[in-house]
What does this fold into?
Amino acid sequence: MAYDDNNIFAGILRGEIPCEKLYEDDETFVFMDIMPRADGHCLVIPKTPCRNMLDASQAQLAACLATVQKISLACMKAFDAEGITLQQFNETAGGQEVFHLHFHILPRHDGVRLRPPGEMADFAVLKDHADRIRAALGR
Ligand code: 5GP
It folds into this structure.
């Protein structure tokens, strides 16, 4: 399947769609998930196009995972988390809904379940959570 740049995350990368940005470097971009399943739920994406893990280059995957680790450590600190769940879905059958590679970072606490999918965030709360992660990143 070919990459289609008419997807939401490509629009975010082009600056056409607003987002609560947390971090970027030359190869990756990180922002809050608009329907967070845990406090601090955020997404790491490559700046260059690929649909998912199946068509990604090793360089794209390596860059994303390095950023996943950096942001996960910040989330541990920001939310006093006890763990991190990493989710990554590939193609519709694999649960993917937005077809630009992304890794979900979900800060976790013992005994606290993920919220159901599809519940829109309160934007003031989302900003507060983003501020906590940005502070933990030291920026
Ligand atoms: P997946 O493709 O991994 O199944 O899920 C896509 C994720 O993108 C979902 O967790 C959803 O909440 C998130 N999402 C969908 N549309 C937007 C958007 O416009 N902005 C942001 N920040 N996240 C989005």
About this structure: Strands lie at 21-24, 28-32, 42-46, 83-87, 103-108. The longest strand covers residues 103-108. The chain has one domain: 8-137. The two ends are 38 Å apart (CA to CA).
